[in-house]
Amino acid sequence: MSTGRIDCDVHPAVPEISALFPFLSQRWVDYCVESGVEGFEPASYPPGMPLSARPETRRAGVPPGSDPAVVRAQVLDHGGAGRAVLNCLYAVQALHNPDWAAAMARAVNDWQAACWLSADPRFVASVVVSPQDPREAADEIARVAVDRRFVQVMLLASSQTPLGQRAHWPIFAAAEAAGLPVAIHPGVSGANPLSAVGWPSHYIEDYAGAALALQSQLISLVAEGVFRVHPGLRVVLLESGVTWLPSLMWRFDKNWKGLRREVPWVDRPPSRIIRDHVLLSVAPFDGPPDPPPGWVDRFLDQLGSTDMLVFASDYPHWHHGDVERALLRHLSPAEREQVLHGNAARLYRLESDEREAAP
Questions:
Q1: pLDDT at 1 over 70
Q2: What are phi and psi of 125, to 5 degrees?
Q3: If you compute the radius of gyration of the chain from its CA atoms, what whole number of angstroms results?
């Protein structure tokens, strides 16, 4: 039973840092106050930039996406979605103090549960973790995963080291044990430059190159053997485009044929591993707004299946074209249902909830 599209990338905003104080120990409340910390709003979305928020999401004095009632109305009641996956981008992962970062991540998760998931049963959320201490992050996943309203773990793409490296494996082990996929979203959780060749001069360079970090992380996950060690793990690439994947898989397969002695645990073509374990959101859809005849069919043939695609609005951001016109209207009814609902319902274990809600 379909209950409407599942929006896999909705961003709730912390209205101000004091909103997290009820979920922090007094030690960390005092630390924030005495240090004069005003908040951790992500710098990747400049507040005044038009692409950072759609006009209807802006409210005087509060960040876009910070009011659950407004988000419920705009995404669920009037936005066409039956469920919304909340991915909070409050940038606690960028803190260099691992204890503080872990405490802030816990507070964000408890704030999401109390202020958002309790506001409407159609909201579900991602577990925010700090990657500086992977074992602490694994403990946080285990703590939060008992609440089934949390449906995935979120990591940021611009990390200190590639996410496939073994230091990060406790996070993947905890996610697999909890039955949760791991989402990778553009964002900064390390001190590295924003591009592979150093620090760019302009915002547009960072923005246009955001997908490159996701591509690097995908290569790392496969080459390091994460999916061999954790065969039940699924990974979702959010807000990174999709049409780049076929060419990357072709190049990865070609190079693997000549270099596979180096990575004997990659025992089949990388493209097969990716198709078995990875999904991507269709926002932003990096294809022509009015594709020529056959363009979408060729892309889907190269991709391999619409099983790899999930719908996302990226609310409240305003930086992608019309997914309906560019992609969805070119799909068959069955494929459209997969992308809008079925793939995400299976991924996030929402099918049983829908059966229970059915009359």
A1: no
A2: -145, 165
A3: 20
Q: How would you class 153 by CB atoms within 10 Å of its CB: exposed for 0-12, middle for 13-18, buried for 19 or more?
A: buried
pLDDT digits (tens, 9 = 90+) for 191-207: 888 888 888 899 889 88
Dist. CA 43–CA 358, nearest whole Å: 42
Superfamily (CATH H level) for 5-357? Metal-dependent hydrolases (3.20.20.140)
Is residue 57 within 8 A of residue 316, CB to CB? The reply is yes
Q: Kindly state the tokens that stand for 3.
A: 């209950």
What's the CA gap between 90 and 31, in Å, rounded? 18
Alpha-carbon gap, residue 165 to 223, rounded angstroms: 9
Question: What Cα–Cα distance (Å) separates residue 311 from each residue in 45, 128, 156, 219?
Answer: 21, 21, 19, 23
DSSP at 12: -
Ranges assigned E (strand) in the chain: 5-10, 81-86, 123-128, 150-158, 182-188, 235-237, 278-281, 309-310
